[in-house]
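Progress against Task 2.4 (sequence-to-structure conversion) is shown through the following example record, which the project officer requested during the mid-term review.
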Amino acid sequence: MPVDLPPLQQERVVCSIAAAIKYHIPANLVLAVAEQEGGRPGQVVRNSNGTLDVGAMQFNTAYLRELARYGISPAHVAASGCYPYDLAAWRLRGHLRDDSGDLWTRAANYHSRTPQYNRRYRAQLIQRAGRWGRWLDQHFPTYEVGITPPAAAG
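Structure tokens generated for the chain above:
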């Protein structure tokens, strides 16, 4: 982990990458959503529709109604650590897998399905995901590992 990141940013990066791997979705997309949401552990924001956005990933309480039967509460998504990122990546994967539209529209459904809000979020998400993709390439290069055939016997 690069040491030039403040602690909350380190948590965002490490937890976003781990959640992306766990749910088989692009890490730069999870990082872009995390940056765009811009939440902090413990943060609660009231929305005009009466729901709350909670924690680092600003997980909407409308989704928590469905998850309450599994014992998941607003306190879980408000906590620090990687669990809120896991829940957000789980939800993001559902949008990517089940919603209609292109990839970016489906990803922007994390924020809103309302077209005007989705479009604005989508445009910002594309920019942020591009920046995070470049950052990941610079800081976390991956390599193909193959088997090199033995040298031909001479």
